[in-house]
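step=encode ok
step=design start
structure_in=
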């Protein structure tokens, strides 16, 4: 018997069908007299509950909320407790605003740092991403708020995000792109999860029974419900069959009619529909039992944001120990970000921050002498001589420049990918000019992902705040002045140049099929295996003190070692465990993160710490068996302060497991040796295990149902080409103003099918097909059909007003 059998028996077939999609933009469907709705809200790092009409793009205003550090920032803390504290605070705000479900955290893998949504994601490493996400999920759900990790799965680029096929081999799929979600689900136990827009090896994520039922529910033990990304419902009935429970936003009565007809025709079993409804009802009914909001303090929320930000700051450089700044140091503050901070990303996560700080406004609270502020250069655009001159003139008054630069809003946003890894040229010019004054430069970097640093030699210190949220400024000052000893460690690699990133020239893929040709060699797994030097390695971060590791002991349970603070101030060390197998017949990374621990130490203090082995320590995915296996034999156990700085090594003999048999091939050898620069499509096809799906050649062609509107640039109709050109122009105008327009970006990447998903009953499937017919060169016939179907749809919707809602 199903959990909610009695309620299910009270629901009509149509009412059950209606429950499979939302009611408007942000609510689940209510059934009069039988079921109330629950409210969903964007919120990876702050609530975005809209105060007026709802939309998924952040176009309309939202309620004031605390803006916490982004997930990319929090990951640098390497502390799930930090994520848990932020999640707990988010849950408090959700209760205050009567939000039942928060859409976050996002934990996709940073396959390429130019991914436009990298600021929302934790790491390039699945183990770290999964552990950090689990902490946030646990905190969110402590008071009954529903967490929604997203986007399951293999969602790595914004370009064509609703109409792309991620072509990925089975080892990479499981070891890199699913392990993060597995850990988050098993340890965080979320009550909901969001499926991604894209296809995975030819099947939409939201229509993959293998993913949503076999893997998510059966293998991982997930007992919540699956919600689509907004507009991510391709085939409504297929999604329900696969294990999807809720299509968002509200699809209207047309979608319910689809489900009813599928049941009546025998295309969808009512037992399957009942199962999906029951899974959804279980979460909705539980959410409606949560306690009312208790006491709420904006000051406490702000303090959580500040604490998370300071624990996530990463000290990248500290030449001649210029930091921390001595009391009374004369500081010249430079940079537009110092006055108008870059503290969050753009898109559906955009927060209406209530208590936003800036470096300029908070400088007075710290023991430095602020002698002046200068903008230095525009936020975006060409350098201006008068602004440079003003900044350079402060050299006569200051002991040190504190300069805040980084990536502006046009570089990082939902809906588009970064064109390069550079900061705006005018900011680089500013650093060059200030360096000529001879005064030391302390650089504060803002941004959500890796950048190139060709000017690194011009500055004396670098503190990376990533996107620190509303309290990031005071967190920066606490580190600069030594009130807090920096303890952050990078959750991603910083390459020397963009060309060092494997297959960077193919990212983002603008055609339908996206080849994940690097396989398991993402981020440091590639750099370490191939011997490619990086600027800052994964796990890197400096402190105002020093640490020493010694006395490694390895047992069947894990590792133990001594950690000593060999410096003069208290500090926190993050001891990282990496495991490799040099004699493996499999393609493996030289080393992989398999655990870590953090220890706080006073000067001269030493502690013994342990890091256990777990179910992820030695496993690999066997594509032939479709299952996890362990390779028996001798492993290298490595402990260090980052992936490239290994202080202690030892060996461990794993006696259980198998000796895998691998067929020799030149393609396999290229991967095994990390020689990705030599890998061809043919080589990848061998690893993939099948013929690669081919992309259509460029040029004018008949557009299809799942083509995004950007493909209208290749349409047969002049009207379609004109619309595509207009959309591209409007997007560029918004980027030139550093204000990415999510409306245009969303529409540009939206497929024709999504018109019926994003606009409820306003556009029926026949109407969307008519629009596609017009775009394909049939203006007059298509227009006639569109008018006819418009009135037919209006009549059908009007006749359905008697449906209980």
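sequence_out=
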């Amino acid at each position: 018997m199903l959990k909610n059998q009695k309620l299910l028996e009270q629901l009509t077939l149509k009412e059950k069908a209606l429950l499979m999609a939302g009611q408007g933009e942000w609510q689940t469907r209510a059934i009069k007299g039988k079921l109330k709705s629950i409210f969903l809200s964007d919120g990876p790092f702050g609530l975005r509950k809209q105060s007026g009409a709802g939309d998924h793009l952040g176009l309309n205003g939202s309620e004031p909320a605390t803006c916490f550090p982004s997930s990319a920032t929090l990951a640098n803390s390497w502390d799930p407790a930090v994520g848990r504290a932020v999640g707990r605070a988010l849950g408090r705000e959700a209760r205050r605003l009567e939000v039942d479900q928060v859409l976050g955290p996002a934990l996709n893998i940073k396959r390429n740092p130019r991914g436009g949504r990298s600021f929302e994601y934790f790491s390039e490493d699945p183990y770290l991403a999964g552990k950090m996400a689990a902490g946030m999920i646990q905190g969110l759900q402590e008071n009954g708020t529903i967490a929604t990790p997203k986007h399951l799965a293999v969602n790595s680029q914004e370009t064509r995000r609703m109409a792309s096929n991620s072509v990925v081999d089975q080892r990479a799929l499981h070891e890199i792109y699913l392990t993060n979600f597995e850990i988050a689900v098993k340890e965080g136990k979320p009550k909901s999860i969001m499926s991604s827009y894209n296809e995975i090896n030819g099947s939409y994520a939201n229509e993959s029974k293998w993913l949503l039922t076999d893997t998510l529910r059966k293998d991982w033990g997930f007992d919540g419900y699956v919600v689509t990304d907004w507009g991510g419902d391709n085939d409504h009935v297929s999604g329900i069959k696969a294990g999807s429970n809720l299509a968002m936003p509200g699809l209207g009565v047309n979608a319910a009619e689809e489900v009813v007809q599928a049941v009546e025709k025998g295309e969808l079993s009512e037992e399957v529909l009942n199962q999906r409804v029951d899974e959804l009802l279980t979460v909705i009914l539980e959410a409606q039992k949560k306690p009312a909001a208790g006491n709420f303090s904006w000051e406490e929320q702000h303090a959580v944001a500040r604490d998370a930000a300071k624990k996530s700051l990463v000290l990248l450089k500290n030449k001649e120990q210029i930091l921390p700044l001595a009391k009374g140091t004369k500081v010249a503050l430079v940079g537009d970000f110092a006055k108008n901070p870059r503290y969050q990303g753009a898109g559906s996560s955009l927060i209406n921050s209530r208590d936003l700080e800036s470096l300029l406004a908070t400088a007075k609270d710290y023991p430095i002498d602020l002698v002046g502020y200068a903008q230095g250069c525009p936020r975006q655009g060409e350098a201006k001589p008068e602004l440079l001159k003003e900044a350079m003139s402060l050299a006569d008054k200051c002991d040190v420049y504190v300069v805040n630069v980084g990536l502006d809003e046009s570089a990082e946003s939902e809906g588009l990918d970064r064109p390069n890894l550079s900061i705006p040229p005018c900011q680089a010019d500013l650093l060059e000019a200030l360096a000529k004054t001879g005064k030391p430069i302390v650089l504060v970097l803002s941004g959500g992902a890796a950048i190139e640093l060709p000017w690194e030699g011009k500055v004396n210190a670098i503190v990376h705040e990533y996107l620190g949220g509303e309290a990031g400024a005071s967190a920066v000052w606490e580190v600069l002045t030594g009130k807090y000893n920096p303890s952050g460690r990078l959750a991603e690699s910083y390459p020397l140049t963009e060309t060092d990133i494997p297959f960077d020239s193919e990212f983002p893929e603008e055609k339908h099929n996206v080849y994940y040709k690097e396989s398991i060699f993402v981020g440091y797994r590639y750099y370490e295996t191939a011997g490619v030097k990086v600027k800052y390695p994964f796990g890197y971060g400096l402190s105002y003190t020093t640490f020493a590791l010694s006395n490694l002991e390895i047992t069947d349970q894990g590792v133990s070692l001594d950690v000593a603070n060999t410096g003069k101030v208290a500090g926190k060390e993050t001891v990282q465990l990496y495991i490799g197998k040099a004699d493996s017949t499999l393609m493996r990374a030289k080393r992989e993160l398999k655990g870590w621990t953090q220890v706080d130490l006073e000067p001269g203090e030493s502690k013994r710490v342990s890091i256990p082995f777990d179910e992820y320590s030695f496993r690999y995915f066997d594509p032939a068996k479709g299952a996890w296996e362990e390779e028996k034999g001798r492993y290298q156990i490595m402990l260090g302060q980052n992936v490239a700085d290994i202080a202690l090594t030892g060996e461990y003999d794993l006696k259980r497991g198998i000796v895998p048999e691998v067929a020799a091939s030149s393609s396999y050898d290229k991967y095994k040796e990390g020689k990705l620069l030599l890998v061809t499509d043919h080589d990848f096809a061998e690893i993939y295990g099948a013929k690669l799906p081919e992309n259509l050649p460029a040029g004018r062609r008949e557009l299809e149902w799942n083509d995004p509107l950007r493909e209208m640039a290749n349409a047969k109709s002049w009207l379609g080409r004109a619309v595509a050109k207009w959309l591209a122009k409007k997007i560029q105008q918004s980027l030139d103003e550093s204000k990415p327009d999510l409306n245009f970006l969303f529409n540009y990447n939206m497929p024709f099918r999504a018109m019926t998903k994003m606009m409820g009953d306003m556009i029926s499937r026949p109407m969307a097909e008519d629009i596609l017919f017009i775009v394909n060169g049939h203006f007059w016939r298509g227009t006639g059909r569109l008018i006819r179907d418009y009135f037919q749809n209006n009549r059908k919707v009007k006749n359905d007003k008697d449906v209980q809602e």
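step=design ok
step=annotate ok -> The chain has 24 helices and 26 strands.
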